[in-house]
Amino acid sequence: xxxxxxxxxxxxxxxxxxxxxxxxxxxxxxxxxxxxxxxxxxxxxxxxxxxxxxxxxxxxxxxxxxxxxxxxxxxxxxxxxxxxxxxxxxxxxxxxxxxxxxxxxxxxxxxxxxxxxxxxxxxxxxxxxxxxxxxxxxxxxxxxxxxxxxxxxxxxxxxxxxxxxxxxxxxxxxxxxxxxxxxxxxxxxxxxxxxxxxxxxxxxxxxxxxxxxxxxxxxxxxxxxxxxxxxxxxxxxxxxxxxxxxxxxxxxxxxxxxx
Length: 259
Known about the structure:
This protein is an all-alpha fold. It has one domain (6-256). Helices cover 78% and strands 0% of the residues. The chain contains ten helices and no strands. It has helices spanning 6-26, 30-40, 46-72, 76-96, 105-122, 136-156, 161-171, 177-199, 207-231, 233-256.
């Protein structure tokens, strides 16, 4: 693959900055970052783009998850099994990532985003306050299943993982949006790490561009996490709806060939 031009590098870094910010607040930064890699590096293989996206995202989720943990103090009885199963699921997903054709990315992601966005819009009270729907072992088991399923998706495809974690933690388990975002960041950090453990030995990571994007993603993640914590659950919910709607328009346009 030829070396990207300075203009392409600058645009990829800007995309990573925006992705880190969005990802820290509601998840889904990969829906900015991965398409940017696809457009900016057309000579790269799908696995190289996925792996480089993971490296940049890992940098951002490291700082945003640490910020959320210090300020929100999520319950370890939920986030530890969520993280552990997300890690295992992501390793499995990364192993099959090379088998998924690039043409399948957008239709799959679009279908899930439409369902998620419609559900949140139709339930305006969703995620305003934490009202846990399950307790004890049932709560832990559902958190673990969530981690395993979304983790597998993250390893295999990736874009929107944080948003899907947030949505399930709010819609199924009953957390408010801020607490869900804190747990989602920790789980997303685990999935990024697991994916890199698979991708790095394969030589799939494009290190130079990945580390540059990682620094930008880290900065965006720090800013986004601090803003989310200071503004609270109502802000995170509104931002979630805006971001999911924008992603539906962006990806839907790709699927139907508008741009």
